[in-house]
Amino acid sequence: xxxxxAQTAADKDELNRFVTGLGRGVAGALFLAxxxxxxxxxxxxxxxxxxxxxxxxxxxxxxxxILLAHRIGFxxxxxxxxxxxxxxxxxxxxxxxxxxxLTALGLLRGGMPASELSGKVALQSVPASIGAMLGRSQLxxxxxxxxxxxxSYAGELLLMAAGALFLxxxxxxxxxxxxLAYKMTVWHALAVALISIALMHGFVYAxxxxxxxxxSPQTPWWHAFVRFTLPGYVIALAIxxxxxxxxxxxxxxxxxxxxxxxxxxxxxxxxxxxxxxLIL
Length: 280
Prior knowledge:
Elements lengths: L1 H36 L2 H9 L2 H22 L7 H25 L9 H25 L14 H19 L3 H9 L2 H20 L15 H26 L8 H25 L1
Helix pairs in contact: 1-4, 1-5, 2-5, 3-4, 3-5, 3-6, 4-5, 6-9, 6-10, 7-10, 8-9, 8-10, 9-10
């Protein structure tokens, strides 16, 4: 009898942790994706962007969610099977949150074509699902959490890609980003690139944020810079190119204009990549 009571208590405790994780996921989806849910450009892109590009964005979100779930799932995960389950839950939270918020704001109406309704929800579900997964990390851990898991070098790079993608999705669809690129000169772009790299390295290694990484006295300063910061910035630029292409911001632009746009978007993308290493 005592064994059954202990098992029941353990099951109840596990359920409570899972429900708490779901609540944090909903909160994360709202807090982190609400700016995009209330951005006019995202509303229009939901029905105007090419469907093959939207589908590609949805596909890309899946491995990122699985990686994040393996790292910071809704409850302790011990294998990729549980991580896939948590990724599916995060995607479901993203879809449901987007559907509810867009409907409440009057952006989804009964007379709309099905392609427009599904496109708006599908597009918004990408940042909302990432926000749902990040909610567990940013909004606290359970008391019995033992800390973050060890991640391989490739895993660290993928985490940086996830952070870069999340912030890029906030900025890439807006007209202001293109205006900034138009007003900049090559010297401005060089300054922004250097500032981006310096902030990436400083946030993770120099200013002692919670979750930051300290270098041992035996490690030369350039080791982390070459191994993580520079590859992280390259990843941020690559994600920026991808985001601009997905949202059809590169068509008809001269190579210099494209480069300036990528560097502008690379600024928040680089900060997102650094933040991913801090909080995950």
